[in-house]
Design goal:
25% of the residues lie in helices and 25% in strands. By secondary structure, it is of the alpha/beta class. The protein has one domain: 3-Layer(aba) Sandwich (Rossmann fold), CATH 3.40.50. A 9-stranded mixed sheet has the order 1-2-13-12-3-6-8-7-11, sandwiched between helices. It has a two-stranded antiparallel ribbon with strand order 4-5.
Length: 282
């Protein structure tokens, strides 16, 4: 049986953390209430992590069919909670990108596809029988034809345009977090705040609401708060939510938002059969 808890900021609608299986928690999110869903689901990597209080991270599935059965219903719920002007970003890698793209076409419609973004993070090894893998895939789909989008600007690299800004392309050159980075939390799948701020600012309107159904250490939520948006995060892991809460409290203080207080309510629900028990994300 899995529990579901809610932790909210003292300032109404600033941020909210909810503990539980994201499929269960998403069912309680109001229809057409979210501007941007950023989903960084398990990659079927085969990894697991044992934390101080037990298993906190498990990215193992029996087979591809089990993985698809896990992702599909969560995409259906994401589609339901998005506003007509909303959009979804799904962050995957080479193991699952083709499966997830197929599901997105089925659920959101192939006509709703906007971009296949490539996050080129620059690290990674090379095998004897393959090219070196140094990128992740991020799929952008609109909820409808009127999805909100503000093209991000990045510094130009050419000599001719040096010192100017240009519109970003679908290849994002942002390094992954190194072992000495100040922002590093120790969470195994943490993404750089620079990447998430770029995505949030491009795909969520000012003062809009960002939802991360597998929020991990809370990078997406911090990016949203620091960019003037509201944020909702969901995860099963006590350890992940503890990290996320501390980061959000710090972000609120840095943004002159009052220190949040905690309140919780618990609902026990069984975990869907054949799914990975823990979510993983930013």
């Amino acid at each position: 049986m899995q529990r579901k808890e809610k932790i909210e900021s003292a300032v109404p609608a600033t941020w909210s953390l909810r503990q539980g299986d994201c499929l269960d928690v998403l069912a309680d999110v109001e229809t057409s209430s979210i501007d941007l869903v950023y989903l960084d689901p398990p990659f079927n990597s085969g990894l697991r992590r044992q934390g101080r209080k037990g298993l906190t991270f498990d990215d193992r599935f029996v087979d591809v069919a089990a993985y698809r059965e896990f992702i599909g219903p969560r995409l259906v719920q994401a589609h339901r909670v998005l506003r007509s002007t909303g959009s979804i970003l799904v962050h995957v890698d080479w193991r699952t990108s083709h499966h997830v793209r197929f599901l997105l076409d089925e659920i959101f419609g192939a006509e709703s596809f906007v971009n296949h973004l490539v996050w080129s993070y620059g690290l990674g090894g090379s095998g004897p029988r393959s090219f070196a893998r140094k990128h992740d895939d991020i799929f952008l789909y609109g909820r409808g034809a009127d999805y909100w989008f503000e093209p991000p600007l990045v510094p130009a690299k050419s000599v001719r345009l040096r010192g100017r800004m240009k519109k970003a392309t679908d290849v994002i050159d942002i390094p992954s977090i190194n072992n000495m980075a100040i922002e590093r939390t120790g969470w195994p799948t943490q993404k750089p705040i620079e990447l998430l701020k770029m995505l949030v600012n491009a795909c969520c309107p000012p003062a809009g609401t960002v939802l991360d159904p597998t929020c991990g250490s809370g990078t997406t939520l911090v990016a949203a708060i620091e960019s003037g948006r509201r944020a909702i995060g969901i995860d099963l892991s006590d350890e992940a939510l503890g990290i996320a809460q501390k980061r959000l409290e710090r972000a609120c203080l840095d943004s002159d938002i009052k220190h949040p207080t905690q309140r919780s309510s618990r609902v026990r629900r069984s975990q869907p059969r054949g799914t990975s028990p823990l979510a993983q994300s930013a």
